Amino acid sequence: MTKGPYPRLLIDTKKLQSNIQTMMKVCQDYGIVVSGVVKGTNGIPEIIENFIQAGMKHLASSRLCQLERIKKMDSSVHTLALRIPMLSELDELIEVADCSLNSEIETLTALNELCQRKNKHHEVVLMNDLGDLREGFFEQEELIQAAVYVENKCPNLYLKGIGTNLGCYGSIEPDQENLGQLIENARIIEEQIGRSLDWISGGATTSVPLVLNKTMPKGINHLRIGDGIYLRDMELYFDYHFDQMYGDVFILEGEIIEIHNKPSHPIGTISVDAFGNRPVYEDIGRRDRALLAMGRQDIGDMTKLIPIDQNIVVKGGSSDHTIVDITESEKNYKLGDTIKFTLQYENLLLASSSEYIYKQYI
Fold first, then answer.
1. Which of 25, 39, 331, 340 is catalytic?
2. 4: in domain
3. pTM for this structure?
4. Which of 231, 260, 275 is the last residue of a domain?
């Protein structure tokens, strides 16, 4: 039995700072500026502090309260608002964000008028939807017209660049074709406005493999990276390995509250689970099953957890419980023992936000 409290998220700050510096160096060598994204760890002050100590000059989040926190900790850090602004939050936006991603003329007009009244200036990056179908101008002509509008009609806005998002909704992989289109659109805009754009922002962590494989189209000079700094989960889905990065910056520990040998298939008429899903269960006989005191409310989809004990299998769970099959483990687990996991992005996002997950820095 180990000493709690549990469930617990162990955060190795030395490894975190190493990952931050490694990512910055790899991208810098390619001529790419990185905005470190803190929303994946809920903008925890200790995480922000480690970014600053590691030398990151640009930080980003979709949550304005997190950007405010950054500015209070170090006003010199350049802050980027990642979510298209709500009209109702523009007053707060211009106080805490140096730059924001935008895709609506009406919002840009309101933002410029507000900045004029407040005697402020604000940077904007216009988003270009290249097929992932989340945010951004979809038609090239609309994007170009918006850029010219900001440059010529919005004196209190500075057109910092254009950008795109790939992978977060439509699961579209960044490649030379779609990022090449972004660069082409940027060049057209530069010709129209008579100057170079500061940033051509080529996406987020899903664009990192192009940097590592040296296939990133020349011209992309900005990325918004969080997951790729915190975790190595993207290597499960993309054809690359980033061996200079630590994959165990974050370790989740859950305490065993029950161990029993039970059937592997539920008994009775199967309907839906607590979340309205209809899982499919495989009957592999009776198994030794451990119940952990943490669930979807704390960590999201627990089947995405990666047990450090490779002979353990996460079977599922509910809002407050996680079920693991320990039959094949060489360790003789007992009540009160803990099981450790590395994480995927969903798990980190939820665990860092949960007040029920204790955070310990090592």
1. 39
2. no
3. 0.95
4. 231
